[in-house]
Each structure stands twice: as C-alpha cells, then as structure tokens.
C-alpha cells in the first residue's frame, strides 16, 4: 500500500510532501471519503463519489476531478499496489490547498490538494461479527454540521478513543436525549422485528452502508423506519447494530454495562447481514 496518488502523480508515500501552509493542515479545511474494496473491487464507488461531491459543495471547494477520473485513479492505485485480490479501503482526501500565509478567509482560485491512498481498514470476520461487540453511550459533543464528511475530526477522535479505552468498539452518541450516530458509524435498532434508524439530518452523516442496509432490508421485506430515536428506545431495543464502510454491519450485544436483548447477535441482524453479503456478491459480479 506504499504507492499513493498525490496531486496528479503516483508516487511512494514517503516522497509526497505537503506545504506547512496547506489549509488542511492549518485548519482541518477539507473533506474525505473512505471506500471499501472487496477482492480488489471498490464497493458502491459512485455513491461515495456523490457524497464527496456534496461534502465539497458544502464547504465550497471546487470539484478537483471528474467521477471518471476518480474511478480511473482508484483502479490504477489498486493495480500499482498489487491489491487486485485484496480487501482494504481507498482513502480520498481533498483540502482547499495552500497559499503563502495563514488566514481564515478563503482566497479565490486556490488549487485543492488531492490525495488517494490504500489503507487496511477495520474489517471483521464472520465469526467476530456473529459474536457481536460492545458499545458505550456518550454525549454527542460534535458541532452541528455532521452531514459533511470533513477532515476536522477532533471531537470524533476523542469520542472514538473513549470507546476503545473502555473496551468498546464504538461510542453511540446522544444529543438532547436522542440517538444521532456512532463516533464513526451509523446506528440501527430493532424492536419487535422492525428496524429503526435515525432519519437523515444535519446531525448525522448519510452513511453509504446505512443506505445499502436499508436497501437490502427492503429487498427482504423487513419493515424499517427512519425517525427520531429516543435514548430509552435504544436502551430497550431487542437488537442494536452499527454500520460503516469497513466495519459493514456490526451487531452490538452489550451497551454500556447492559446486554442488548439476549446478549447475542439477533435474528434480524442475521437476516440483514446475509442479504448484505448477497448484495455485495451481485454488485461484484457486475
Ligand atoms: N457516521 C460517521 C460519523 C462516520 O464517520 C461514518 C464512517 O466513517 C459513518 C457514519 C458511516 O458511513 P459509511 O457507511 O459511508 O462508511
């Protein structure tokens, strides 16, 4: 995974240098995407590029490359790193670029810094997934524009770190008494065999895995609702899952100190994970 794409060139990562005035470095002024790659094939790349476009628009950075060019770069990077059989993630990073000063205001005609790298990701085996994971709840300390996939992630870094330090996979975040999402994932719950997930809003990222999870739930006729989820509804749920690109669908079997449902992966999670795996195979055969 040593070769990266950096501002128009493919080169070993240690040869890429960024200006100390890059606004990504100075202000966290940029956006990113993480695309899972299964057996060398990017999954839902068009949906990820669509979201990247939305993030760029939201922070007023011009689109640096066409969709076609992003796709070509990703394919070339996979080939150059000999990853045609591998499962990993593509990381796309765009900052506003640099100028020879530090000022908050945005100058016209800045040239974005563009980086694409291959990263290991955090993929779980079927066994790990079936065993389930622990999550903790924390107050959502992030700002309000969580729908933008922006690189300034300090609150998320601290929240995710708190989860890991307490032996949990993820922190499920609560804002004003309602579930928003995980520090690095979306949240689903199951009650009476029906699925609930927080509706899209400024307070959550529109996860691509969330989107695929709802699609496969619809395909296998499991009712789902996108709505507000009060903290009590989370705590009383029969099942809790989190979803993210490299983690895919992870059942949460312990929330804080309490078991979720029976403390094992639930039947709805099992069906949806199977449908998700089937969907991955059909897309891969395209
Ligand atoms: N929400 C947050 C805050 C995230 O950081 C992520 C992924 O990193 C997600 C949700 C899940 O998004 P996706 O399924 O597109 O990976």
Q: Strands, helices and their partners?
A:
Elements lengths: L2 E4 L2 E4 L10 H5 L2 E9 L2 E2 L2 H14 L8 H14 L7 E8 L17 E7 L6 H6 L1 E7 L14 H12 L4 E6 L2 E5 L3 E6 L2 E5 L9 H12 L4 E4 L3 H5 L3 E6 L3 E8 L2 E2 L7 H18 L2
Helix pairs in contact: 6-8
The structure holds pyridoxal-5'-phosphate (PLP).
- The helicity comes to 25-40%
Radius of gyration: 19 Å
Biggest sheet layout: 9 strands, mixed
The number of distinct helices, counting runs of at least 4 residues, comes to 8
- Taken as a percent bin, the fraction of beta residues is 25-35%
Order of helices and strands: EEHEEHHEEHEHEEEEHEHEEEH
Q: Give the overall pLDDT as a whole number.
A: 96
| Uncertain runs | none
Bound molecules: pyridoxal-5'-phosphate
End-to-end Cα distance, whole Å, is 25 Å
The count of β-strands is: 15
Shape: globular
* Sheet/helix structural class: alpha+beta
Characterize the structure shown.
The protein is an alpha+beta fold. The protein has eight helices and 15 strands. The strands form two sheets. Strands 7, 8, 9, 10, 11, 12, 13, 14 and 15 form a nine-stranded mixed beta sheet that branches. Strands 2-1-6-5-3-4 form a six-stranded antiparallel beta sheet. The model has no long low-confidence stretch (mean pLDDT 96). The structure holds pyridoxal-5'-phosphate. Pyridoxal-5'-phosphate binds at residues 34, 181, 184-186, 205, 207-210, 243-245.
């Amino acid at each position: 995974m040593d070769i990266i794409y950096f501002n128009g060139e493919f080169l070993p990562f240690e040869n890429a240098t960024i200006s100390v005035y890059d606004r990504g470095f100075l202000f966290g002024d940029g956006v990113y995407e993480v695309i899972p790659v299964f057996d060398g094939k990017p999954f839902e790349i068009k949906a990820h590029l669509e979201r990247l476009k939305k993030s760029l628009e939201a922070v007023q950075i011009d689109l640096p490359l066409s969709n076609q060019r992003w796709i070509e770069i990703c394919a070339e990077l996979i080939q150059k790193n000999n990853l045609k059989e591998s499962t990993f993630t593509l990381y796309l990073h765009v900052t506003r670029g640099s100028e020879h000063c530090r000022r908050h205001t945005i100058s016209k005609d800045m040239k974005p810094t563009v980086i694409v790298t291959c990263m290991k990701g955090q993929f779980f085996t079927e066994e790990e997934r079936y065993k389930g994971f622990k999550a903790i709840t924390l107050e959502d300390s992030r700002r309000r524009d969580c729908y933008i996939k922006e690189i300034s992630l300090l609150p998320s870094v601290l929240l995710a770190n708190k989860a890991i330090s307490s032996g949990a996979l993820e922190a499920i975040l609560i804002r004003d008494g309602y579930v928003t999402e995980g520090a690095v994932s979306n949240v689903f719950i199951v009650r009476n065999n029906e699925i609930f997930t927080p509706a899209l809003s400024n307070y959550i990222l529109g996860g691509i895995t969330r989107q695929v999870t709802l699609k496969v739930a619809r395909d296998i006729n499991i009712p789902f609702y996108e709505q507000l989820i009060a903290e009590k509804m989370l705590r009383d749920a029969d099942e809790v899952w989190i979803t993210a690109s490299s983690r895919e669908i992870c059942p949460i079997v312990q929330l804080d100190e309490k078991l979720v449902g029976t403390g094992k992966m639930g039947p709805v999670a099992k069906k949806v994970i199977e449908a998700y795996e089937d969907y991955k195979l059909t897309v891969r055969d395209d």
